[in-house]
Amino acid sequence: VQLAAARVEIQKMAAQTEQLAERATELKAFLTDPKQNKIQSELNKALYGGDGTTTKPTVGVSTGEQTNDDSYCRTTNAAKSITGDFLCLCGESTAGTKECSQYYTPTRTDGNAAIDKDWGDLKASCGETDLGQPTAEGIRAAIATWKTALKLKNSGSEIKAFLGKSTAGDGTDCNGQATKTCIVYDDYFKKTGGKKLSSLPWLAALNEAAKHLRAAENKEQVLRATVAQMEAIEKTVEETYKRAATGQLVDEQPSKTQRQNTASQQAANPGVECGSITEKPKCVDNCEWKGEEKTGKCEVNTTKVAEQATQPGKDGATETGETKTTDKCGQAKNPEECAAVKGDIPKDKKSVCGWIEGKCQDYSFLVNKKLALRVAAAFVSLIF
After folding, report:
1. How far apart are CA 18 and CA 229, in angstroms?
2. Which of 111, 233, 318, 329 has the CA that lies 20 to 30 A from 214?
3. For the chain, which residues make up each domain, given as ranges?
């Protein structure tokens, strides 16, 4: 009884764990595979422009074509990437006023291809920084700061929008020279015929990165909850195995003492069992017919019941005539007792227990233990 109950419970939990492990594996793959979560791709796209595969500033991808800073920073080629915008804000080689840092000296002239070196020098001028992991909240906060820093100026019926220093005061002179180190966003603030601000290349990429980060954060929470479920199941399997091994999982059939008490109750109460029989031919075993065949009644044969209860045993039999058995394999002291253990015999086995490695072991518990190991294996494979 204990073995069958344990097997059913552990099989259910093993199946549940396999489903959870499958779900957890999918979640883990999403979180660790850049091709699935697309976070790094969108961050690269925002920082360097292009399709997200570029990992350094490139002329024509991160900025406008290689002509001059007017193309980089002021015409329709502007605002392709964050690096491109920074290079506009910090100026080119003729901007001797060191707009961004006293430790940064730009080397490019009129939009030459030195932007990779300039970007490296600009980052180095910031000193050591403790970069944390990107978050959706951090990205949105940075976007809000950028919007606050934008300078907007009415120009007739239109709005001029720029960031940085402009001698003209409206961004029309952003050419990278001293006091003209700025980046223009006019196209995204036009009242008619303009572009949506959300379509600004690096801003759109940042918003996508924030969206993917939020999705990843949600999936991470689901993964943690799934792992917690698997941990709980693993503990339950172990507890089920222990309770079954000690006979505490389910209530078993009445014990020998209970059966003897029942026999005594039957002797004291003739109406129990035997009393329900109304035909003499059916009044057998521990019952006897008293009286005429048609008018008599079936009663407990108290003499026979008493004899069976005190009958001496043979070949290891007990005082009640039963073969010596034990409810648990571990209590058997020799192969004979091991073979006599009562219970549900597993498929393809001749007995409940087997004499294995010098001791009596339960075949069914070995099966259940393998099921428990399946649960543990699924959990461990996910974690590691």
Report:
1. 12
2. 233
3. 39-195, 254-325
pLDDT in tens, 273-319: 677 788 888 888 778 888 888 888 888 777 776 666 555 444 444 44
Residues in Cβ contact with 42 at an 8 Å cutoff, skipping those fewer than 6 apart: 52, 205, 206, 208, 209, 212
**Where on the phi/psi map is residue 358: left (φ > 0), alpha (ψ -120 to 50), or beta?**
left
Distance CA(276)–CA(267), nearest Å, equals 14
Written as six digits, the tokens of 307 are 């004899």
Please say whether the beta carbons of 67 and 76 come within 8 A: no
State the pairing for strand pair 158-164/287-290: unpaired
- Pick from 24-28, 135-139, 357-361: least confident: 357-361
Nearest to 186 by CA among 174, 198, 178, 195: 195
Provide the token pair at 215: 């999705």
**Does the pTM exceed 0.70?**
no
Token pair recorded at residue 173 = 């002179």
Amino acid at 49: G
Whole-angstrom distance, CA of residue 179 vs CA of residue 166: 6
Secondary structure, 3-state, the chain: CHHHHHHHHHHHHHHHHHHHHHHHHHHHHHHHCHHHHCHHHHHHHHHHCCCCCCCCCCCCCCCCCCCCHHHHHCCCCCCCCHHHHHHHHHCCCCCCCCCCCCCCCCCCCCCCCCHHHHHHHHHHCCCCCCCCCCCHHHHHHHHHHHHHHCEEEEECCEEEEEEECCCCCCCCCCCCCCCCCEEECHHHCCCCCCCCHHHCHHHHHHHHHHHHHHHHHHHHHHHHHHHHHHHHHHHHHHHHHHHHHCCCCCCCCCCHHHHHHHHHHHHHCCCCCHHHCCCHHHCCCCEEEECCCCCCEEEECHHHHHHHHHCCCCCCECCCCCECCCCCHHHCCCHHHHHCCCCCCCCCCCCCEEEECCEEEEHHHHHHHHHHHHHHHHHHHHHC
